[in-house]
Specification:
214 residues, alpha/beta, Rossmann fold, seven-stranded mixed beta sheet, 7 strands, 18% strand
Length: 214
């Protein structure tokens, strides 16, 4: 029997994703742009986990379903274009009756340098239009997200909001980092499925892929 004046510690609830969404824009025009690194992450997860992806008009996206670490998992690439990503996410969440906190959204972030990723349990959109749409359609900011750094835009005339940067392709030096960055992303997601998002945060938010010295 515990003493009356002691407070038993309650283990925190594990947040285990059931739907992993990669943000991006559909079409070959955008395929290798910085803004589509979320799509790239989903494609790699599908290959590693051997999950078939196919277009589903009901969900307005490319979807795959499988298992990892004995857990049912779904992958999604919205085909609504970035600014309306939330429509597709909401369609999948409603169909499978998922809670917002079981949705992990993967997307690009100009505020992080190349080679860094950052995982959070909740937060604002930070100016990312795909996340603005996701928050609006889910009706909450309380869902996990994994941001992949794409570096700050160089000063370009008429590019005040960084649109040319995010819609541009990776430089040759950046492209060399992408496979390792995506491997880091997959590792972080796999740990979140095994031990929860918070555990993945504690181990992966301090890791980075180093740029090779010339």
């Amino acid at each position: 029997m515990p003493r009356p004046d002691t407070i038993e510690s309650i283990p925190p609830k594990l947040i285990i994703p059931q739907l992993i969404v990669g943000l991006g824009n559909p079409g070959s025009k955008y395929e290798k742009t910085r803004h589509n690194i979320g799509f790239m992450a989903i494609d790699l997860l599908a290959r590693v986990w051997q999950i078939a992806l196919s277009e589903n008009r009901k969900f307005q996206g490319i979807v795959g379903e499988g298992t990892y670490s004995r857990s049912k998992i779904r992958l999604l690439k919205p085909l609504t274009f970035m600014n309306h990503s939330g429509q597709s996410i909401r369609a999948v969440v409603d169909w499978y009756k998922l809670s917002p906190e079981s949705v992990l959204v993967v997307y690009d972030d100009m505020d992080l340098p190349m080679g860094k990723i950052r995982i959070r349990l909740s937060g604002s959109a930070g100016g990312q239009n795909g996340m603005k749409s996701a928050i609006a359609h889910l009706g909450t900011q309380n869902f996990p997200r994994l941001r992949i750094g794409i570096g700050s835009p160089k000063s370009l005339p008429g590019d005040k909001d960084g649109a040319s940067h995010v819609l541009g392709t990776f430089s040759a030096a950046e492209a060399k980092l992408i496979p390792d960055v995506l491997d880091l992303t997959v590792g972080a997601i796999e740990l979140s499925l095994k031990q929860g998002v918070e555990k993945s945060m504690s181990l992966y938010n301090n890791r980075s892929v180093e740029q090779p010295t010339v």
